[in-house]
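Exam review. A common question shows you a sequence with its structure tokens and asks you to describe the fold in words. Practice with the pair below. Do the first one on your own.
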Amino acid sequence: MAANPMYQFNVYRIGPEIKIGEIDLSFTNASLFMVISSLAILIIFNLGAQKKNIIPDKIQLLSELGYTFVSKMISDTAGSKAKPYFSFIFSLFMFVLFCNMFGMIPYSFTVTSHIIVTFVLAAFIFIGVTIIGFIKHGFGYLKLFVPSGVPAVLLPLIVVIEIISYLSRPISLSVRLFANMMAGHTMMKVFGGFVVSLGIVGGWLPLSFSVALTGLEILVAFLQAYVFAILTCIYLNDALNLHH
């Protein structure tokens, strides 16, 4: 069963079953790696924030680079008005990044390879950004669906397209992350299975592909966290500045 490349995505219960009515609240392997990722973020960045060395060590350097990277991303994408939301964007980026990276460890679990996890994150972002937009602009936020300079004859069609595009944001945001992580890990498992089945003599080619694919997947893990965060910044920019 372990040779099945899809087996790595199975969610299973850890500990006793916990149910409230028909809702299963049991602690699972997915829950475990979300907790591990969250604790790793808290530990690393708390330790990094406590250190104030002129020449930073690795933990302090990682903390400062992470802070600077996210801060610049927000400034470049959403402007100064988005600074109050730095903590949320930073937490979101780091959570997705650490979940992706922990998923690269053999025999671990990739939380972001499950659509339910990525969709809940994307839906939370979508609802939050929409609320912010209406708080900032009231019903004027609906101007987002009416691009300027569009001929009146095309306006009804364009408005419908803009609304569909807006409502599809949580779907595209969640599917992009989930699909990339699942596809990459499936390919790694498939090539790993070829290495085992072909042995030392015939397995050198799939082994070389596995090594290259692992390096590529580490890059993809970072890029997908970055894309997830920067698209959140773009959506936030629309809500704050009402560009249309």
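Now try the second one, then compare your answer with the model answer below.
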Amino acid sequence: MTTWILIRHGESTANLARRLSGWHDVELTKTGVEQARAAGELIAHHSVDRVISSDLRRAAETARHAIAVWAEARGAAPPPLTLTPALRERDLGSLQGKHIDTLRATNQMSPLLGWDTAPPGGESLETVITRSIPALLSIDGPGCVAVFAHGGVIRGLMGLLSSAPLSEVGVRKIPNATPIFVELGEGGWGEQAARHGLFPR
């Protein structure tokens, strides 16, 4: 059995400005740093064995702040941190940097709300999960793994676990720096993906 702790990054400068960042490498705000540290306190009662994070700054910074607080609270050395581009937010193509309110007012948000739809030049949620799962499988095993990523990645992963159709995954809200705990058996994320025809069993 593996306990997975899924944590979206803390508030970023793009979040504060209500702009879509995608692969733009934006920083955490002061509030985002505080949220990351609070997440560390929330997971401190778990014996985290491994940590994996998107290599984008907002996720990696969240991981480092949270794990530092975790280590201090437990009086232990921080677990190893693996950074990988496989857990990046979805590439939003032509919508990266755009203001959310403008996109909603001009009905340009719909490509972001489906499972297999993508903005021009960008990725679908299906593509994001297909590239993310192998990274998670590479560190799977007994114990507890903390995963620091982005709304799109976590939205897709939670969609794999839901009984709702994948077409509804895109509307799920993923709050900043709020740990989501998931327990999976031996098949792990690979089995969940296979249920939806993404990978062979």
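Model answer, second protein: The chain has a mean pLDDT of 93. Residues 110 and 117 are 8 Å apart (CA to CA). Full marks require stating both points clearly.
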